[in-house]
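Please check this one:

***
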Amino acid sequence: MLAVDLLTRVGLATVLGVAIGFERQWRSRMAGLQTMALVSMGSALFLILSAYSFDQTGDRLRVAAQIVSGVGFLGAGVIMKQGLSVTGLNTAATLWATAAVGALAGAWMWREALAGAAIVVAGNWFLQPLGARMDRAQSTRRDATPADYVLEVVCQHAVEDELRVSLSEALPPQAFQLRGIGLNRAQGPDSVRLHAEFATAVRDDDSAIGAVRALSGRPGVTSVRWSIAHEGAADWSR
């Protein structure tokens, strides 16, 4: 294979990877310009290796197939789970599609490579805001999600009884059912920890945040936090 031909194919793959990565970098995603360019360039190099370096009588598509599975492992590294939410799926899919664009460029199917890159960029650029708008429009029509909330307050001994009452009434009783209030006196010589458990048929983080803000302003309160079972807590410390 001539050097000019090699540089042309790999160069096209790199440029298309940069074009795809620009949109990811602009949105401050985990995989941006450099990652997309390297994935596209590497895919082109592997395909050229498969087509020109191995025995022509062998299965020259074997390396191309391994590109698909190999990039899958790379994409798994950008998928993150945060509470009930999963992020990075779109970036992982973009990495996978970028590998396909690079492979097309490596095979010198440049028209298909250009079209593929344009479709990937357009899909990320226009479909994401459209999807977010649809989510907002459908948010009131989705099935309600039940949740168990826990409010925890660290306060001084002198205001323990007063805070116990306030804590039990911190969340709206028409939507939240109080399951119980606990006490831990092992916080120190002058403070105690109170915690109340609430159940609700519809998850409502705004009410929990409002309760934390209200409780944190009470005299004698050191810190307040809310949490949901199996999730991390949100602190509001004074």
